[in-house]
Amino acid sequence: MNLRDILSPFFVWKRAFEKPYSINTLSAPRPGAPAYRGFHKNDVSKCIGCGTCAEICQNVSIEMVPVATAKDGDSGLRPKIDYGRCCWCALCVDICPSGSLTMSNAYTWVEEGLDKDVRDTFCYTPGVDSKPWDNEPLGYKKPDGYELLLLDRIPMPHLSPEERLSSFVELVKGYSRELAIREADRCIQCGICTATCPAHMNIPAYIKAIREDNIAAGLQILYDTNPLPGVCGRICTRLCEDVCALSHRGDAISIRWLKRYLTDCVEAEDYKDILKTEIKPLGKKVGIIGSGPGGLSAAYYLANMGYEVDIFEKTAAAGGMLRYGIPEYRLPYDKIDKDIDFITSLGVKIHYNTCVGKDISFDDIYKRYDAVFISTGLFEPYFIGIKGEDNEGVISGLKLLSDVTEGKEVSLGKHVVVVGGGNVAMDAARTARRLGSEVTILYRRRDEDMPADREEIDEAYEENVTFITQAIPLEINKLADNRLEFIWGKAEMHFEEGAKRPQPVLIEGSRETLVADTIIAAIGQGMNFAWMDGEAFANIKFGKWNIDADRWGRSSDQKIFIGGDMFNRTADAITAIADGHRSARAIDKLLNQ
Amino acid sequence: MENLYPPIVDGKSVYDLNSQKYLKMWHGPQHPGVTGNMSLELDICGDQVIKCNTHVGYLHRGFEKLMERRRYINCFPIVCRICVPEPDTNEYLFAAAMEDLMGIEIPERAKWLRTLNLELSRLASFLMWIGGQSGAFGMGTVAQWTMAHRDFVLDLFEEWTGARIYHMYTIPGGVRGDLPEGWDKRAEKTIAAVHKLLDEINYVMLNNAIFKQRAVGLGVITPEMVDAYGVVGPNARCCGLQRDIRKDQPYLIYDQLDFIIETETAGDAYSRTVVRWKEMYQSIALIRQILAKMPRSGALHATLPNVLHLKIPKGQTYLRAESTRGEYGYFMVSDGSAFPRKVTVRGPSYTHAMALLEDLAVGVNIADLPGLMVSLHTYPPEIER
Questions:
Q1: Number of domains, chain B
Q2: Does residue B261 fall inside a structural domain?
Q3: Are residues B67 and B45 in the same domain?
Q4: Which of A251, A268, B38, B155 is deepest in the core (most CB within 10 A)?
């Protein structure tokens, strides 16, 4: 020891006069840092209640509780957080697919009322139970440049637009095993899709089966709710993808293509082994009119329950609109056959070329069967309702599509005009493109108002279809060279409050001309009941536009059920399949219980 | 001293309790010298320790077992709790072990930010330790200063990562976010204050007659003991060995930083204090280097498979990093499922606070025992994961 060591500590004497470190937080509260992980906030209008926050929470501190009204694609649940368990790791915030969950920078919370239920003490539902920090702008948000979710969809390989136009080959090539597993890996398994799917397919479960490369289990899950998965895997309107939790900040999961992948993985002859159908005949018979998706779905489930099922189909092949209304490049015929062949392998009999009302009377069917399911669909094309529509060369979109399906010789000429903005219009236009014509689509409203699938519209653009929007057809005149003069007028859009889409109104005096070889009207279809007769027909009550039926599709005659496009207004395959399944259960309840 | 030892019979020491020369005393488990909860079973004669048995387990929370039933992403909020004063080494090693097994390369910028995170937490951890070291020898004032400065460092963490203690910043795949606007300036202000404090600590502690009298010659570790006891970090460097994982097996971007291995030769509590005191200066210099050299743009996080279903291919790995106490290691085994089959954490305190302390404590005056424990810089939570 030396003198230096004794004196040295006194060098820091100045510290005695420095400002103390401690602060009085009572008189001047210390706020958390701007990005401090404090108590949660939730923008309930953005939240979809998918429960991913609860899924990732390692402390099980988040419980999804029901709250008031739910919007579309919303489970109606909201996260309730137990601060006795929360560790403020904020993984819930980072993974939130809608981006609604954040944190405030508040870190003190004094709770009153020890008489509360212990389960509610230091618990609250952010955004629902009001807290002082609700409107606090500061706090933790998911930082930029880092993402736990996989927001980008695995691109689906397509044929190039040039390759497409030369044939009717299916333009979507389908996922390989590796791509499908990667796409399936993106799914967070919230199940919002299941709630939205008309058939309530267990989407998270079959996506999980793909992820785990268990194709057989996946196929079984598909057939639980959908006996036409190969078809739906191609042309489903996929309402599920519209509400997919991932679609809020990124791309929805390709649910449709994953379904397609599952069915493409299994050969037709292996279906029987995988699906292991054991049918115990009940000795009761059900007649089905129409072999579209609704009829086929009802037939599949009824056959599985042990009913003897006969389908009456007026055309030479089954599938209805699937076959005659959807072009081959979107839904190849062999894929329809694959699904239908499995249904017929269960003993379902399809009577082809049997038009009810002509080859067999409705009354006859009604008397012969214990129950009747009608799903004849919408097969009567609407007319535009303008002068000159009866000219030769004006055809309906449906006619073109079914002619092509039947392999008839179709000659459309060089210039084709398609009127309409729905899926049939797109299909007709793109079919015409493949037949070598130049195609112009006329639509009454704006591009974004078209009811067709966005994907189809975009593909039509890629295939060099010309679009004229806000165009109202006025008249059609036959020209001297046998061509058609199509006169249309420009429309302006009128926005009415409460209306989903604006109303097109013709601009006075506007008059434009197009010359075409063929004009295709694709503005929708209606139904027809002229084929009905007999005692049953007299019993059935008709509503404003349709047969009156309850939510099971049961008409006023308890033996007659309806489904498909003639029952629901969404007019898509998956809803028809759901109708078929639902009516099959109702028929079973009627006949077997 | 020699005659105070209990006689040895059949290889075991036996006490003649009737001799009234010995006393059995429990030191701990309530924080025996601000290191955390562990217990020393002491046999003392007068005020001198003649035998020391360590008892651990008071902080056992079963992290390693917990992880076997948790998805990898759900282990991420757990691992930081294995060592409270310096959680970031755990976060880094857990993430790095996962990335190693998955074959994922993290973005360059994330490596720099992780290194910055580790160095800043090294500074915070040493500031806490130096307070303990001075406090254990009765110099509570220094402890007040350093704990306040540690809080200033935690302010930086709070602003950067959103939390003060459990930062949960180093996430598998990269890091969670960038430095906030203007953070560099505030960091510089804080580390400059710490730098000034270290200069003053030199006067008030390292050149203090009282401190020197108590620390010099206390708990001498010889180079021969280092490998025999598994001594690592400053405890090994204090007796002249050049051992530092950052230099020996550079990880992250330590190979791009300019620094030397700080050593002393005496091997006693005093030289350990000096090594750590020098390393704090070094940390400050490293933080300044990182902030000057770090890339300011680029990705922060590599794309991982969906963390909710993440499965890691079969395999095992052992990764190490230099914490304030020395080599910290994570041994991770995956059986290909969504849960780790085994995660074993090698906390450096495991050897220091048990086998080494038991031997070093013998002959020490009981008043110096807390100072000896703190000079080994042990954190019981990492002994009993």
A1: 2
A2: yes
A3: no
A4: B38
pLDDT over threshold 80, residue B242: yes
**A486 vs chain B: nearest CA distance in angstroms?**
54
Separation CA B206–CA B154 (nearest Å):
25
B374 lies in a domain? no
CB atoms within 10 A of CB A490: 16
| Tokens of residue B378, six digits | 């042990």
**CATH class of segment(s) A277-362+536-592:** alpha beta
B74, B157: one domain: yes
pLDDT for the residue numbered A110: 84
Give the pLDDT band (50/70/90) at residue A461.
very high
Residue A579 has pLDDT above 70, yes or no: yes
Superfamily the domain A381-526 falls into: FAD/NAD(P)-binding domain (3.50.50.60)
Pairing of strands B174-175, B315-323: unpaired
pLDDT at B32 over 70: no
Residues B43 and B104 in one domain: no
Query: How confident is the model over A307-342, as pLDDT tens digits?
Result: 999 999 999 999 999 999 999 999 999 999 999 999
Residue in this structure with the two tokens 């609700």, named with its chain if needed: A134
Sign of the CA dihedral B227, B319, B348, B221?
positive
Asked whether residue B366 is domain-assigned, the answer is no
Whether residue B1 has pLDDT greater than 50: no
DSSP string, A307-330: -EEEEE-SSSSS-THHHHTS-TTT
The token duo for A524 is 């929708």
Q: pLDDT (tens digit, 9 = 90+) per residue, A172-217? A: 999 999 999 999 999 999 999 999 999 999 999 999 999 999 999 9
DSSP A136: -
Burial degree of B10 (CB within 10 A; 0-12, 13-18, 19+): exposed
**Class of the domain covering A161-273:** mainly alpha
pTM of the model: 0.89
Chain A positions contacting chain B at CB under 8 Å are 1, 4-6, 8-9, 11-12, 15, 21-22, 32-37, 52, 55-56, 58-59, 87-91, 94-95, 103, 140, 143-150, 185-189, 211
Confidence of residue B33 (pLDDT cuts 50, 70, 90): low
- Among B151, B180, B200, the residue with its CB nearest the CB of A35 is B180
CATH classification at residue B334: 1.10.645.10
pLDDT at A113: 67
Domain with CATH 1.10.1060.10 in chain A: 161-273
pLDDT confidence bin for B30, thresholds 50/70/90: confident
Contacts of A146 in chain B (CB under 8 A): 171, 174-177, 300-301
Using the predicted structure, report yes or no on whether residue A73 has a pLDDT greater than 90: no
Judge whether residue A583 has pLDDT over 80. Answer: yes
Identify the weakest region by mean pLDDT among A296-305, A454-463, A538-547. A538-547
Considering the domain architecture, whether residues B44 and B151 belong to the same structural domain is answered as no
- Give the mean model confidence (pLDDT) for residues B36-62: 87
Q: Which of B73, B77, B208 lies closest to A87 in CB terms? A: B77
The partner residues of A101 in beta bridges, in order of sequence, read A42
How far is the alpha carbon of A139 from chain B, nearest alpha carbon, in Å? 8
Instruction: Give the whole-angstrom CA distance, residue A325 versus residue A93.
Output: 46
Indicate whether B341 and B311 sit together in one domain.
yes
- In this complex, the residue of B148, B171, B203 whose CB is nearest that of residue A12 is B203
Q: Is B44 helix (H, G, I), strand (E, B) or coil?
A: strand
- Alpha-carbon distance A263 to nearest alpha carbon in chain B (angstroms): 23
A–B interface: beta-carbon pairs under 8 A: 112
- Structural domain including B259 reads 63-347
**Subunit contact B306:A185, Cβ cutoff 8 A:** yes
So what's the pLDDT on residue B201? 92
Q: Is residue B239 predicted with pLDDT exceeding 80?
A: yes
**Same-domain check for residues B38 and B138:** no
Are the C-beta atoms of residues A322 and A313 closer than 8 Å to each other?
Answer: no
Test A148 with B168 for CB contact under 8 angstroms.
no
**For residues B11 and B337, which has the higher predicted lDDT (pLDDT)?**
B337
B315–chain A nearest CA distance, Å: 20
